[in-house]
Amino acid sequence: MTSRSDIVATGDDEVLVFGASSQIGDALLPMLGRTGIGLRAISRNPPANRPGLRWVRGGFDDIGDPPKTVISLGPLADFSRWLGQVGGVHRIIAVGSVSLRHKSDSGAAEERTVAAQLAEAEQLIAQRSKQMDAQLTLLRPCMLYGAGRDHTVAPALRFALDRQWLPIPSPAGGLRQPLHVADLADAISQCLNGAGVGQTLELGGAERLRFDQLLSRIAEAVPNCQARRLPISAVRWASAIAAPWSGKLRRINRALNRANVDQLPDETLTRQHLDWRPRQFEPVQPGQTRAGR
Asked: In this structure, which topology does domain 15-273 adopt according to CATH?
């Protein structure tokens, strides 16, 4: 088991980060920046450089000379294609999603496609890593929150803030294990220090909550917000009717269809290979932050 604070030395090489502009990157880049590691981050619209962080304008096709260590926070399919065209990488940490398992038998064809693409990408990354004799860790987080950019907690918070009430579909007993992006960033930093080599690790937060409990916790985080329980059948029907005209409502409808199905990570290997102490689920309003541990 590795220390949280001692990040492995990388010599003269930078660590290359794809998907650095993502919600995971929001948490990871400052964390790694405090360790003194040199970072090269890729973005179509890069912000200004800062000490220890060099932004490069472009995408996968613009990186043909990778350093020895590469982190992928973005789409796995794109990363797997890029990895098949380069060499010289010794350490790979790639973030996918536990949706690979949970959505493989979904009633929605779109979700089954996503799961199949994740599985294919993981397989290609593993094959290429073996060919290069690179050390690979695959991370599969579950429901992420904390940066205000997710598709579940953040929209519910915004709804509650704007309207001072939040619908709670009932019954909705499927278990969730929401994971703060900063805890995922901590897992990545541990892997940079040598943890989890050769493993596929699933990660969740400290609490297992029913879907309706999760929404109630969000309502409690907003002052003067009322939680209103509604029959899930009626809410699902309404969202299904409007789904063809709204991507947001399609996501809501799919979430409601899974509201009574458990979607939990298997953290057996995670707890064996990481010093894994994620935080309790504590939703915050957009713009607020919680002090780090």
From this structure: Rossmann fold (3.40.50)
